[in-house]
Amino acid sequence: MSERKVLNKYYPPDFDPSKIPKLKLPRDRQYVVRLMAPFNMRCKTCGEYIYKGKKFNARKETVQNELYMGLPIFRFYIKCTRCLAEITFKTDPENTDYAMEHGATRNFQAEKLIEEEEKRIQQEREEEELNNPMKVLENRTKDSKMEMEVLENLQELKELNQRQAQVDFEGMIDQYRELEKREREREKEEDERETKEMLDRALVKRLRDSDSDSEKEESSCSSQSNKPTTDKPTDILTTDKPTETQGASAGGVKKAKMESWEKSVGTLGGRGALGSLVVRKKPTAAVNKPSPVAATAAPTSQTDSKASGTADSTKASKTPTTQDGSYSLSLLGAYSDSDSE
């Protein structure tokens, strides 16, 4: 690869450069160069906008018979990006700019137009003053009057600035801080008020929930109070059984159904209670053993006899006994059957 990068070429000993024929190229020949659009332009054919800085492959040529102080002027040919219409512009060394020539119009050149207008006015004024001395005096008078007006305006601006310089900036800053503080306090009060309203709503809701819960508890308590409750298992023996009512066709009250143990023994709180069958033993010379049934019935009958009263005790005195002081089992059964009937 190194032999391909040589910079020197071989010239034979009999080489004569004068024998090389010269190429006769035209002086207005064109070159292809790469450039960017020097200004904003708009195509006259399709109205496409071409902005400054867009790159083109342009053809460059030297303008014939046009020079500016010995400097040549060049012309460039580009094509529109939309319709491929040819656009030409050339250099302007007098104004250090480019001049549009054909195919498009230049946009956004207001500053350049103003400068051209000022130059034109200045040239006209110089031409008038050249041959008219009175015009020179008038122009000087106008210039002096203009300078006086400018000075007066400048003095007014200075006074205005001095007047504004006397403004108390510290006071303005304090007022702004006070206003900011009031705004912050107002926002804080609004936040507190909203928080209080939310708490009040939550409290009212909680009270309503508690009231509903208390009403439910009261209703449950009342329903439970209506139900009969028994404190002790033995209370069912002393309570009176409710009678069951029949329909209107029966026309009377039916007796409560008696249990089997009540038929054989009898109720504890009625007229024919077992307490009326118990009598206190009288002292005798010979004490015999009581029967097992009387022995088991004795303690319960004694406790019931205390609660029954004087009527039961008088009835108990008439209870028949045997000669040896023991109770007759046959008589106990008879009394229990009579009580059940």
Automatic annotation (TrEMBL):
Point out the signal peptide segment: none
Which stretches of sequence are listed as region Disordered?
A: 180-260, 283-341
Location in or out of the cell: Nucleus
Q: Compositional bias (Polar residues) at which positions?
A: 302-323
Listed GO cellular component terms? U2-type catalytic step 1 spliceosome
Gene Ontology BP term (one): negative regulation of DNA damage response, signal transduction by p53 class mediator
Keywords, ordered alphabetically: Metal-binding, mRNA processing, mRNA splicing, Nucleus, Spliceosome, Zinc
Tell me the superkingdom of the source.
Answer: Eukaryota
What Pfam families does the entry give? Answer: Saf4_Yju2 (PF04502)
- Fill in the subunit field for this protein: Component of the spliceosome. Present in the activated B complex, the catalytically activated B* complex which catalyzes the branching, the catalytic step 1 C complex catalyzing the exon ligation, and the postcatalytic P complex containing the ligated exons (mRNA) and the excised lariat intron.
Q: Which coarse location class describes where this protein primarily resides? A: nucleus
Q: Where is the composition biased (Basic and acidic residues)?
A: 180-219
Q: Which family does it belong to?
A: Belongs to the CWC16 family. YJU2 subfamily.
Binding positions for Zn(2+)?
A: C43, C46, C80, C83
Q: Which organism does this record belong to?
A: Seriola lalandi dorsalis
Any idea what job this protein has? Answer: Part of the spliceosome which catalyzes two sequential transesterification reactions, first the excision of the non-coding intron from pre-mRNA and then the ligation of the coding exons to form the mature mRNA. Plays a role in stabilizing the structure of the spliceosome catalytic core and docking of the branch helix into the active site, producing 5'-exon and lariat intron-3'-intermediates. May protect cells from TP53-dependent apoptosis upon dsDNA break damage through association with PRP19-CD5L complex.
Instruction: Report what the protein is called.
Output: Splicing factor YJU2
Q: Name one GO molecular function term.
A: metal ion binding
- Ranges of biased composition (kind: Low complexity): 290-301, 324-341
